[in-house]
Amino acid sequence: MKDYIDYVLRNERKPVEIEKIYKKIKELKRVVDPDYSFSSEDIEEISNALVKGIEEYEYYRTPKGKYTLLSKTSFRKGKFHGNKNAEGVVVCNTSYFKKNGEVSIREEKFEIKKDNVNNAVDGDTVLIDAGGNGHKPSIVKIIKRNIDNIVGTVTTVGTKSYVIPIDKKKKNLTIHLDGNAEDGSIVAVSLSKLSEKELEKYKESKENQYLGKISQIFVNNDGAHSDALFEAFKCGMPQGFSEASIKQLESIPMEVYDNEKAGREDYTNLEIFTIDGADTKDKDDAVSLRILPNGHYELGVHIADVNYYVKEGTPIDKDAFRKGTSYYFGGMVEPQLPPKLSNGICSLNENVERLTKSVIIEFDKNGNVVNRKLVPSVIKSRKSLTYENVNKVLGGQYVEEYLPFKDTLKKMDELAKILRQKRLYGGAIIFNKPELKFIHDEMGNPTAVALRYDNDAENLIEEFMLAANNAVAEILTEEKIPCVYRVHDVPNSERLDYFLDFLNAINMPYEFNTEEIIKDKEILQGLILHISKNAIRVANSKSFSDMLNTNLVRCMSHASYSTKNIGHYGIGSETYCHFTSPIRRIADLAISRIIDECYFEKNDIVREQNIKKWTDLAIEYAAQASKMERVSEDVEKNVLYMDAAAYLSNYVGQEFEATVVTLSNNGICVQLDNLLEGKVRNRYLDGEYVYNQRNFTLVALDGKGNYYVGDRLRLRLINTSKETKSVDFVVLEKIYENTIKDKNKSNQYVKSKAIEKRRIDFN
Fold first, then answer.
1. What mean pLDDT do residues 594-621 have?
2. Residue by residue, what is the 3-state secondary structure of 123-140?
3. Bridge partners, residue 77, by sequence
4. Across the strands, what pairs with 721?
5. CATH topology of domain 2-69
6. What fold characterizes domain 74-144?
7. Cα separation of 172 and 175, whole Å?
């Protein structure tokens, strides 16, 4: 019935009475069916649809009781983006009907002044009157408050305690503390509206009065950690564990008992070890390797059997599903599982027995899979190795405590390189770009910058995990068992077109077009090599290659989780899943459960029931895993920007060399050789400039010289802001210019147009 109502209302110029809607729908129905009889059920259905449409802000009922589309009025539903001055912008995605009946979604933005905010806070869903006829846009109703997660500082005034939001955009909330916390503590609170009785008790009568119940206490007066936690909170990162989860831990054993080994392969006598970062405490994967009599490699990848301890539907499982992943940011970790599990019984620590699921794969000398099996197992890791020391061993250095594993590590490296080369030939895309990390002190302050490149040890573990994940996905698919696939689509053609134009503009043209690159991965791999060979020539800086590789990565589609297998473009696999990190990812825990219930299950009837169950349940896990992975990425990215501003605040006034990486009408984005980035804003440039988008050039209007991507500059750092995540420089001199001689005609045209406009505006 909604389609009929939409049709009637979009074709009426003015709001109409409900009786006219009945009449029009009756006429429309009789066009299709001349014998149609309008009934009381139709009247009720239309009335209900109108009520629902009004509740969802699709329809509007006038004070005189007439109906129209909300988009035909001055009212709009949208999201309020407030600032610290209690003003902001409301962004509305409004539905409009085209003449052919199709729906068009149009984004509209309305600036809201302080007097018209009507107690809304940043993130609220609101109804606005868009104004017009001399009236400014104003918020008329708060539809849904964005107050689910509030982090603030406890402040005591007399006998009353309040929570002052750290987010200055929510400073107009008054939060009365429900609970006990020391003055100055940082707390998270869930809010409830004060009742009339409570308002009377607190002797308050203003709007935006709330009672805040403590959901978590963070650290006292710890600026760096608190800022990072607050940023993570804003991104939507769930924190902490429920009381029920903490209680459940009491019933989980912290060692493996003999009766728990029944039905498992006993690999405790194999040479098995873990390889992780030096500070890793949650070790969910271990590896082993044997050379078989036929000369083949037998790789063992042994994964913590988290599902044995975290049963579906239990409090810990619900918390794990809510979080979706572990979060690593600002020198801290918010684990998916309680540390007692993630660092204890589920972690493959050295010299203790652990329950696992093992993928055993036999490879021939060319890296082809000859045999494979997936079995429940029990292992005992011989030692916890680190990437740093394994790289030393593989590089020929002497590490005494690693001598017993030296030969195995050499053979593992041999196999890993065979597998990596095979993947490259099979179409895998490998970017050799560094990962930017900060070293933090115990208070969470960034003290140093570290660029981490993947070396032989990191590549070794990556290849073995890829092999195990690939094997598990193929086994489940062959058995027609549901799977939470890790999928990755082809590159985004528009972004790739833009990137190729960009390369051409900076004197690094690539001979192939977007269609050829997407179709042939060898050509894409050639593009990566093209960048590494020519970056130094163009920008006289090695870090420029890292920047270009980063921009090329952004042309790739975003990997996600799905029950529909479209393959994984990036790693060159037709069938792939995530299985190897059940401590840290909910998708891997789902795969572990699917294996137990649908692959290891011997009873055919139970097995079929479980397959049916997971056909639907896997969809929920895939959606949640994808959603929370985005949250994790936002947390990591935003805190990294905060750390960059905080770290560089110690160097204000000092000089740096940097490379121009992007240009815009707002100024110049530069990258230091340690990959930290900042801006030279237009107002800090010596002269007036206009951006030539076609040519990726910032064109000088007064003879000061153009700026090109790839230019090397000497800069002075003048300002940083952790709050706005900004780093500002001024240019001292241009060290090296990536001039684009053949593009100057375009630049001259843009310059003349800008000067002409300036002359007209002046007159």
1. 96
2. CCEEEEECCECCECCEEE
3. 127
4. 726
5. Arc Repressor Mutant, subunit A (1.10.10)
6. OB fold (Dihydrolipoamide Acetyltransferase, E2P) (2.40.50)
7. 10
Structure tokens at 622: 């895939």
Q: Are 121 and 169 in contact (CB under 8 A)?
A: yes
Tokens (6 digits) for 300: 């063992």
Return the C-alpha torsion angle 521, 660, 674, 532, nearest 10: 30
Count CB atoms within 10 A of the CB of residue 510: 17
Strand partners, 699: 690
CA–CA separation, 204 and 162 (whole Å): 13
The CATH class given to the 652-762 domain equals mainly beta
Tell me which of 2.40.50, 3.40.50, 2.40.30, 1.10.8 is the CATH number of domain 150-221.
2.40.50
Confidence of residue 522 (pLDDT cuts 50, 70, 90): confident
Instruction: Determine the average pLDDT of the residues in 346-363.
Output: 97
Per-residue pLDDT, 336:
96
* Residue 466 in this model has a pLDDT that exceeds 80: yes
Phi-psi region of 133 (alpha: psi -120 to 50; beta: other; left: phi over 0): left
Q: What is the pLDDT of residues 56-68, one digit of tens each?
A: 999 999 999 999 9
What is the amino acid identity at position 216?
Q
Diameter of the chain measured on Cα atoms: 93
The answer to whether domain 2-69 and domain 74-144 are alike in fold is no
CA distance 322 to 238: 7
CA angle 738, 744, 749 (to 5 degrees): 140
Contact criterion met (CB below 8 Å) for 583 and 346: yes
Instruction: Tell the burial category of 593 from Cβ atoms under 10 Å away from its Cβ (0-12, 13-18, 19+).
Output: buried
H helices, E strands: number in the chain: 19, 33
Which of 627, 631, 596 lies closest to 614 in space, CA to CA? 596
Give the end-to-end CA distance of the chain in Å, rounded to a whole number: 59
Q: Mapping DSSP to helix (H, G, I), strand (E, B) and coil, where does residue 128 land? A: strand
Report domain extents, the chain: 2-69, 74-144, 150-221, 247-488+560-640, 493-556, 652-762
Q: In whole angstroms, what is the distance from residue 28 CA to residue 32 CA?
A: 7
**How far from 122 is each of 150, 152, 171, 395, 660, CA to CA, in Å?**
12, 15, 10, 54, 34
Percentage of the chain exceeding pLDDT 90:
54
CA distance 475 to 640: 39
CB atoms under 10 Å from CB of 1, counted, come to 14
